[in-house]
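Internal QA ticket QA-208
Title: Verify multi-chain structure generation after dependency bump
Assignee: T.L.

Test input:
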Amino acid sequence: MNDDVIMSVDRLSKKFARSLKRAMMYGLTDIARAALVPHRFRSEGLEARLRDEPRERGTSVTRAPLDTTGLRPSEFWALRNVSFDVRRGECLGIVGHNGAGKSTLFSIMSGIYGPTEGCVTVRGRLQALIALGAGFHPTLSGRENIYLSASIYGLTGREIDAVYEQIVDFADLGEFIDMPIKKYSSGMLVRLGFATAIHLKPDALIVDEVLAVGDHAFKLKCNQRMTSIIQSGIPILFVSHMTQAVEAIATRVMWMDHGRVVKIGAPREIIDEYTAFMDEKAAEAKSTQSGFVSSDSPISIHRVEVFSREGREGNSLRWKDPITIRMHYRCKVLLETPYFVVRLIKMGENGGVVSVASMSADSHSWQCHPGEGYVDCSFDSPCLTHGQYDVWCSIARSATISTGLGPYQQSFRACGFRIAASPEEMSLPGIQLSLRGDLPAIVLPHKWTCS
Amino acid sequence: MNETASSRDGLAVTTYDASGRDRIALSAWRVMFRELHEFRELVYRLVLRNFTSQFRQSFLGYLWIVFPPIATTVVFALLRQADIVTIPLEDTDLPYALFALLGVTIWGVFTQLAQACTGSISAGGALVSKIYFPREVLVFSAAGNALIGGLLRAVVVLISFAAFAYMPHWEIVLVPLVLLPTLMLAIGLGLFLAPINTMMHDMGRALEFIFQFGMFLVPSIYPTPDLTQSESSWQVCLFWLHKLNPVSYGIDATRSLISTGSAELGPGFLASSVLGLLVLALGWRFFHACEPLLAERL
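Actual output:
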């Protein structure tokens, strides 16, 4: 192993059982096997498979059919074929949805779980800032707990003596250090836990959102401490759902999805893709909630697609590409002018409604015959900036105001599209683009004059 | 599963792999002893933590540890005195109360030890699922706490000797030695059952149940039947139940050391010693082999 590589994860897989009863059974058989069956009779086939399997560097998010090789009933892969290295001085950020396997990965790296396949190598002492205050006992004082907790992490009495004063200084609990910790406030507990964990001379760190704890002053102190740790070259695995924090700290980012590595790469690139992906997912979830159609509604939209030119479907468009939104509808009776409405919404920080196209505003009248058909809404030369957009559709009644009845179909998120525009195209040569795009949808032509 | 080697810059390299090969290999013994040595401090701190926090909010405190054997002894002494049960006591100059107290105390220490070890991993669940450290530490620290409890009970026995004005032979100092097989057996059992107990909590309950009734099948409150005087088949049956229970030998040897100053360490005692050592060694080995499975099965 290269001396610069501090943590190395090689084709790591881990399976768990969903059912408690089955987990118990599997556990018993696993124990019997571990204790009784010599190794050479067990994983011959597995090792051969691992040898043949290439060291994958990432898979796509839309996974191949669920991998069930080697699974017993009700088992699933919490981690599948995960590989990466972390070198001295690196900070690897990890992003992924809840349940993507981040915590399982950390548990295996710190030795709590054993891997099902593959292997993890760690040089030196890996400290996880996840289980802050693990091993604390409520009736013992803060002082006693520091010693207890530190010795759980494997420090000897002399080593603890050496850092004890620093821990107490950092936690800054005053005379409360001699009070049983069950009387501590939750903030005080976290201070004590963080102070203990951070002073145990780790050679590598796993950090999981802990920086968001304590009062403002303590948070600043933690951040300072983390910065000095990063500068000292200790490699860090950093997990946070606050992607800005990951982007700010990490030197590389790994995106995990359902136990697999989707991609590893430069922070900005991966986080852009990840947030765009999550935005889309969130919007999809939203659209299933809305789009309400009352059962007696005579007309409804059942499918919406976006394309730039006839026959060239796809949700990824270039700068100034014409955009057509095609709404497929089903109609039960002859209707005089059902008003179709299309809203474009830009995602991201400076997003918002970009444009509303409504048949009623345009005084566009038509007749809708029973059966299926589609309505196109075309934008010929939209100067929309780089980023992710949502399309919301609805059908209003021609006489909504006079009858007091609701719309035929309420507004719902129908689909999304992405516009990729280079800074030059948008005449913003100095801008740094992200996929999600923090630009507003339209940047008006402007000039600067200084005097 | 957990190899450690040193690299050039002195950092220990730890490898976790799926094979579990070196947990079965002969070299695992070295690892087991090294881990125990490295984490002896933690064992000590956990023992201290449990001991000091156990009765922190209790008025009678450590007295609760010594009540059960005293209560059992008092009840049986009373029943015997009132002629409700007949317990012959011939071969010994020990008063019945002391005789029973010794038996009940040793059985109690044995069962407490085995039960504490068995339940230690489940009890330390929060810790086990959060941090890695050799899990044996939990078993051995539970054993440490149970042994402290045993020492407290031994103090009660010594006080009782004084109360009955009974002068034991000086060989009483050898008692820990003849109890060693019993203690090893208890810890070994605990090491075997602790991993299983993490999945099937029945194990702890089953033990409690078995031990509760087991007390009446060892020479605790009555001596082993003397077959030279009676040939009743029930007595033969009971005789063999005692002889087949390895704990009986520790109890008998202790009593005879105290009352006669010598103990006959026959083939039975020898066999129970070998058994104790064997169960401890195999149990520890078994525990070590399935250690990586413990956290996820809790």
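Spot checks passed. Residues 47 and 139 of chain B are 10 Å apart (CA to CA).
Status: verified.
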